[in-house]
Amino acid sequence: MTAAPLPGFVRTVRGDVPAAEIGRVAFHEHLLFDLVRPGDRASVDDPPITIENRWQIDYRSNENRNNARQTDRAIAAAELRVFRADGGDLLVDQSTGGLARDAEGLKAASEAASVHVVAAAGTYTADYQDAATLALSVEDLTGRFVAEIERGLDGTAVRAGLIGEIGCSWPMHEFERLALIAAARAARITGAAISVHPGRHPEAPFEIVAILNEAGADLSRTVICHMDRTFPRGERVRDLLATGVDVEWDFFGIEQSHYWFGDVELPTDLQRLALIRALIEEGFGSRILVSHDVCTCTRMTRWGGHGYGHLLRNGPALMRRAGLAETDIDQLLRLNPLRLLTLADGTSLQED
Ligand SMILES: [Zn+2]
Known about the structure:
Elements: E1 9-12, E2 15-18, E3 24-29, E4 33-34, H1 54-59, E5 69-70, H2 73-85, E6 88-93, H3 103-113, E7 116-121, H4 131-134, H5 138-150, E8 160-167, H6 174-190, E9 194-197, H7 204-214, E10 222-224, H8 227-230, H9 237-242, E11 246-249, H10 269-281, E12 288-290, H11 310-313, H12 315-321, H13 326-341, E13 342-343
Helix pairs in contact: 2-3, 5-6, 6-7
The structure holds zinc ion.
């Protein structure tokens, strides 16, 4: 595809890549992860996924522990190859600290599949953290997040290119409030953008934005994830956009109404796109992110799922049907994520 002359570079697990060389992006995914809470990880009595039970396991999604983790690098590489065949060029793994983040594994899978991968700095929700992490001060957390972008993740030399998803609960845990402040400070220092997983309450995104704003974050480089389950009919998305943040629909490919984590009626892909089309018509087209947030095996092609390339394989046709123009499609699948992932040109990002 013809790339627009985008300035700056994107920090991938294999090094910095000029943004102008990058094509279509899956902005919010999980490639190597464990979403089982650390205290529950030891138990192994859940049934393995088979062709006979995969629908039921997928329907209740994260309930089966074998479905809620994927730590095999060869499988990650195979899924990335499918993504590449669908036209994908870069995938962001937003598995932050606590989700069994595997920076070397991401690098190995990226190399094996020849697909760019961006890893994530930051921490997930408090219930995924160990006691030592929960005891960190905001200064400690800031230093850690900056080091993850400038030096490497978890003792490796593999660097992160995005801060988040920073995990937040409802009500918010004190650790999560400190992590948000640290994310804001680390973003100021490094130039990296921030992605936030809000708690499952309509007030949660607004509380988060207030904390980030108070801490000096650049809200134009901040994304609030999971509009699909937070405002399933688009309820308060415009209020959220009015604060200055970007908003993300990242349940693409989940074509079921039942939400396994709560009493929410999920939208379908076309319902998501109807909301997005209305926002584009109102001038918000540059501030919308789309992705799948794959975080279960049954959504991967190996287990009969849609894979990381659904939005590239099926998305453009759905988007045209929803009334989007080709320029809108390019904005959603390439330009918007690249703008957020792009760090300043040059390497001296230490000012501030
Ligand atoms: Zn996620």
